[in-house]
Amino acid sequence: MSIRARISLITLGVRDLARARQFYESGLGWKPSTAGNDDVVFFQLAGGLALGLFSRKSLAEDAHISDVGSGFGGITLAQNLESKAEVDRVIATAVAAGGTLLKAAEDVFWGGYSGYFADPEGHAWEIAWNPFFPLTEDGGITLP
After folding, report:
1. Is the pLDDT of residue 53 over 70?
2. Which of 14, 21, 24, 141 has the most CB atoms in a 10 Å sphere around its CB?
3. Which of the residue ranges 7-11, 102-106, 138-142 would you say has the lowest mean pLDDT?
4. Are 57 and 67 contacting, i.e. CB atoms less than 8 angstroms apart?
5. Mean residue pLDDT across the chain
6. What is the pLDDT of residue 75?
7. What is the pTM of this model?
8. Which residues contact 89 (CB under 8 A, 6 or more apart)?
9. What is the distance between the alpha carbons of residues 93 and 86, in angstroms, rounded to a whole number?
């Protein structure tokens, strides 16, 4: 028996939940779900995926791992868009909302266009236009 390949929820551990919520809600314009509470915020994403924001300390405790350490955690989140102009607009919006520009958008070696920002908690986001991964109607990607 194989396990279905999917991700349902991505949870980001954050040190300042109010600031993180403000960035995604007010800065990027994402609408929080009513499923959240004072300790956790959820955002419905395209394709049935959800993003959660939860205390970094509480998330580490829940997973029985240490919260010690900082720096690059070996993961980035990515959003594929329909055009280079849309990539530029989203990165500019994120930076104006308090994100940090990590890499200005540029034509990249694999034939697309992408750049990176970090949210106020340091989570890296790649924003890309990839002509090889067509977008579905709800913004998901279709792999060849």
Report:
1. yes
2. 14
3. 138-142
4. yes
5. 91
6. 84
7. 0.84
8. none
9. 10
Q: Which two tokens stand for residue 47?
A: 């394709």
Q: Which amino acid, 74? A: G
pLDDT tens digit sequence for 19-32:
999 999 999 999 99
Edge-first strand order for the sheet with 50-55 is: 9-14, 50-55, 40-44
Name residue, tokens 């792999």: 143
Dist CA 45 CA 24 (whole Å): 12
Please report which helix (H) or strand (E) contains residue 77, including its range: strand 77-81
Residue 15, both tokens: 């040190």
Residue located via tokens 């340091």: 122
Strands 77-81 and 100-107: unpaired
